[in-house]
Amino acid sequence: MTELRRARESFGWSQTKAMSELRRHAGTRGIRLPEPASLKRYFSRWENGVVEPGEMYRDLFCAAYRRTAAELGFTPVRHAPAVQAEQLLTSFALSEAAGPGSGAEYALRLDAVRVLDRQLGAPAALEQLRALSTSVEQLLKHAVLPTARRPMAGVLADAASLAGWQALDTGDLDQAWTLHLTAQHAAREAEDHPALAHAMAQQAYVLLDVGRQGDALALAVAAKDAMRGGAPDVLTAWLHAVEGEMAAACGDELGARRALDLAAAVVPEEGADSDPLPYISLNASHLARWRGNVLARIGDVQATEDLFSALGGMDPTFTRAGASLRCDLASSMLAQHDQPEARKHAADGRVLARKAGSVRQRRRLDALPLSA
């Protein structure tokens, strides 16, 4: 007979009475216990010595039977601080073992995931990105010195921004907002101002998608201000283009055109080293597509010319961008009352959006007033 059962019988209580006492003591502590049938199964296993109660139930038994844990025969629980210290030391050792070059190694792995995301979208890249992000976060959490933390923080900023864009594309706006905040915190620790500006500007799209166009524009402008000491031309062009898109969404045609002109003045030429930052891929063809998107927002017929120019220079492996471009073309064709061409581009866009797993682009396409 276990000490737990012996204690109950010393009071002359049935199991039902003992469970009632447990519930009473649990209630005074704000604890909600399982349904009677479930608790009865646990109770029998405890009294028969099959398993021992967890820490919460041990405390309740001690209170109900007015005995110590030792008197009830409970195995002494290892002191929690000692367990935590041991776990923490293990984590410190793992982070140290990763070595100073681990940031560069994880950055290379992230680049491979980024290529997969551009080509096939979130469905193909999501699990790999989550696994990589978790590993980086754990190493960063237990890295001690700034010299070890900064490289890992830089990788986390990049990974979180990519994950945030995937979340936005798949329609999870709350997750997208949170991941971009993570990216910004990591970029600040890494002292990486380009990564910070990039995460802030991408986050503006979350605001745009929930209808806060004014805040989206303000955040895009703040992202430019986050740069200190200049930025690579490709980032400067990208930030101007983001501002132009946000200005167009606010109905500021003059501001949108001005921002696009500033982007065009610094965008790298075709064939130039246009990718000094791995998270931005922008050249004249990409900017033409973007310009067409923005001009379409403000009802400019020149949008069609820019969009077709972008279509001719589009990298066919950029599946999500291709879906967006087809959606822009469909919108532009509708503005010119060319329903057949609009339906054609919309159909092509849906194929690409499904391939990329892009909920965002599918919603854009579904919102188009296409005739049957």
Automatic annotation (TrEMBL):
InterPro entries cross-referenced by the UniProt entry: TPR-like_helical_dom_sf (IPR011990)
UniProt-recorded name of the protein: XRE family transcriptional regulator
